[in-house]
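User: two proteins, same treatment. go.

Assistant:
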Amino acid sequence: MAGGGNVLESVREDDFVEYYLFPPIDSRDDKEQEVVLNRVLSQAEKVIQKFTKQYLWHKDEFKLTARTWISNSLIHDNGKTEYLPPHLHGVTHFGDNIEDEWFIVFLLRQLTKEIDGLIARVYDADGEFILIEAADYLPSWANPDTCENRVYVFQGNVHIVPLEDQETCPEMTQMVVNEALSLIRDDPVDSLASADIQNCIINKLKDYPEKIRDNLHRATAYLPIGVAAILKHKPNLIAPAVQVFCNRDPVDMRACKAMKYFPPENRVSASVTFTKCLYAMLTHSKYVPDRRTGWNLPKADSPQYRAHNLGVKIACGFEILISQAKPSQDIDQDKGWHNYLASLKEKNYFKELLEHSREYNDLLNKAKEYYINHRDSMHYAPAIGQEILQLTKTLDFKVDELKNSEANLPPEDDDSWLNISPEELDKMLQERYGQKKFVTINNNSNPTTLTEKISSFLDQVSDMDGVEHPDVENSPVRPPRGVKRRSKVSFAQDTKTEDKPTNNRISFDPNAFSCAVQNILNFVIPDDDSWDLESGSDMSDYAEDNCVNEETYQEVKNKMQQYMEEMDKELATTTIGESFEKKNGDGFDDIENFKPVDIDMNALKNILESYRSQLGEAGPSSNMLGPMGIHLDVTNKDGD
């Protein structure tokens, strides 16, 4: 679904979340609609202010604008245009911090609780991401094609407008927003999602608003006086500064070498509040400042190094932002404009017109005009740089006060959360996605366990979606071959399985197949028409053939025997055989000192050696055995 009435408005990055708030308005008069929308907007802003006062947005803030009936439209994927009822609308880009997206869901849920009759709709680039969270509990008909325009939040609860005819093709199930709103208001019980779905969303949001504070991190940074004063005046400017620094390019680096606006000569220690996401981004962004600029960082093992290092990066971020501030009509050097233009081209805005043609230039001029008029509200606009530039000229601050405050800075937060051990990561994944059943294999394990597990996995039924490996608890019996469980992908990140037995039994004659392969190896073409693909023959035809005549077969056998004898002579002069693990020669008592190779033990030994060489990172052994439910452990009982 494309939001907005035209391509110019709907162009955006993939990290967006779009939301609508529909109040109950029956009037078709624009003035009456505006009165109601402004009243609801005023109520909504009070609720938003209550919860976002201490919130630090990663990229865009949550912002609502009023839209009357005739001022907006909705263009569906099938090209049909639908005029939406009057509503409040907003788009937020959340960048690398997915918490912003779910915090917006929390806000929408609170708004529908506190404002009577308000119905919310929210989606992102993946579509109905709310349903992704509850994918295990969705009705059987629910998938991305059938759920468009059917998912809403009303009175704090999730509502899914049911599909009337589940056998209808997805193309015929397009729900009209206005109709969905009427169905929810007329019969809220019919569209109310199940308790399991409600609980999934409630559990996802249960830590808000307390979680707002938990997502913040306070650290001390050694900053140029101007940066410290600006952050004290407007702390949320730390977000664009960190982002622009972490996404810097060679052009931005020229500004960092000059440091025209925030020179390093006069600095002060200041307490800076980040989100954990921003702090992690800045900490892990490698940067070595040019000493000729005036940066004099202490040694890496010094207690002051972290504060100095953070200060350099933050100051460079502010310098880059100012360097990107351009006059209002000058967009030729505006990187935001070039990003916007590239997005328009991807959406075929220019309709394959010849560049510099009259029609192309007309569309280009319209795009430039739209960008200039709206870039202050666009996430990659130079408006932030202009704001910072203006603050450097008008902000009144006292250097003595900033220096005196160094002695009373609040303590820094512990940043040990940056380091997560593999065990902690496994625990987090298990809490999020459930406990996975593993069979642990190590040096002391029975080697047959490994081969049996692999054989069991290879025996499973597979289709284009992958292997259907039975869960130990839920599916103790593998479906017999020929009766296959169909797996249907529900949403972007989860699957929902429906049991639909299908008879896809294939008649297969192993002897005939063996003969066919033998013919290929011996370069023998049958005399009949069995190799003619247009004939009605099948593999069973080979069962009646003599794969090769006796003379040819004996000739091949003699050659193979000769090859084997030559190989034995070559290997006899080496010690390669001693590298294999042997087992007692049961059944070979008549052969002196003969010990057959223990295939299972050698397989286990080689796989464990491969796992050791991975040094805890991803590799062939863990990638191959992990999906089979096999956990490798290179230590033995003695801890070696």
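Protein 2:
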Amino acid sequence: MKVFKYIIFCLALTIRLCHARFRIESEWSDGFEGTLEIPIKSEINNGWKVELRFDQPTMIDAWLGNLHSKIDDRIFLFINKNWNAHLPLNSLFEFKFVAKGGIAPSNFVAAWFNEELILSDSTSTTHVSEVLNPTGNTTAGLNGNSVSTKGTYDYGVVLRNSLLFYEAQRAGKLPSNNRINWRGDSMLMDKGNNGEDLTGGYFDAGDYVKFGFPMAGFTTVLAWGAIEYEDAYRQSGQLDYVRQAIRWATDYFIKAHVSQYEFYGQVGDGHEDHAYWSRPEDWTKPRPAWKITQQNPGSELAAETAAALTAASLVFRSVDSNYTSTLLGHARQLYDFANRYRGKYSDSIPNISDFYHSWTGYGDELGWSAAWLLRATGDQHYQVDVDKHYIEFGLNRQPHEFSWDDKTAGLQILMAKITRQQSYRQQAENFCNYVVRQAPKTPKGLVFLAPWGSLRHVSNVAFLCLQAAGIDINRQEYLNFATQQINYILGDSGRSYVVGFGNNYPQRPHHASSSCPNRPAICDWSAFSSPNPNPQLLIGALVGGPDQNDYYEDRRDDYVKNEVTTDYNAGFQSAVAGLLYHQVKTSTAYSEIFD
């Protein structure tokens, strides 16, 4: 029988756990019984959570806790029963469990108590690729050895987690392989004005509106990362999952494109939605839907959706030629719609103006979508259009960000990649040199471009400059920059800003559904006001981030610093994929992995 050494480590943290131990009670051919010994150094009155992680699927029985959630039959979260929510000061909490199904004690790789890591098998390679907290601390593993991993992060785990966040944001009828067990089917009543099926797509943020413009924007960026860094997704086992994430959006866009010059750009009233705090599964009222037409055009919306569909066509080109053709057919029509019938989409859908108003106009999206169509089709007609848009809208200007509203920097770098022309390369270099060398930074080194969703902005530019590095523009400088900025987010700043990953990650994101208790309990504004962590772990979500002085507080009511959105994660995830790609490509095993 394998016996683990007992002394693990002491955490001088909020719950002040010292000398947590794992004890094997008995072991047999296909399982074992174990006990976690957890000394309680601060009284616990409001309940507890124990999370157990294994490196292969297992079945678990635990007598002292209720199973709250599980992922892939390897990660199990238990919460207290009604009678044992209180743990007295200086008591020893013994959490007993039985693991069975061809499992051994060596397959038990980590444990958390109240969101803090208490045990970690630092020698398990499978653990390193699967556990949500592989980084940041000097800890001792189950084998008693100490390992320091400060400044090194498992980017494959980050990719996996970010894709789980996108699954948590899905609307509509969920597939049978849904991995987020606290989410269910929702908004199945979503219809167009003539009864068109508008189910599916993504909820935008902590709310339940389907805003088409930022949804298309994040889809384009997600697809761009999947195109450029397919090897990284393959190596981390996430290639199928990123394709599924992209397709969940593009299938919805195809539904929303009900005729050549009609496209639904929003489902749900933003004001009514923001007055509601509960689960999306509990919403029963019909929701309004708004579309753009020839009479009420929306060039930003149509063009960005064309860009998303075109980029997605490149993702699926090698695996589904029929779907690729469908995507390109809709993309061509939507680009033509955007260019032929011009108008600002927030004028045609006024409800959007308080949420995603178009500040920069539609010229950047026209150029952006034409560039993507040029890349996917090689049709020089689109090069002519890019040139026209450049002149008409002054797209050779130097932008200072890349966002859901302003695609200019992305257009410049994309054209540099497509054409390798010096004029575009110079624009790409000017942008990244500004970001890397001149843009304001916080005391800890975060590039600070805007206060609302500061980490979203830095992730976007980190991804863009990785793209510039990929065509040999200041390669090492930009790679170093992207690494520094992404690692700030993952823990080099002193904490993680990604839910469920690393040290001291956010526990109270501004996100309604994850703030709700398990059903059938009622969820309302009392969940918003609760000081406790969100009952559901919104794995992989990137929060807005700190201010210009690196100040951040984990507060659910702070939607500037602590909301999560689908567009925050897109540039972040694609930048992480880029870092993993460079990491793997430069490793000695690269040729063995991908040849």
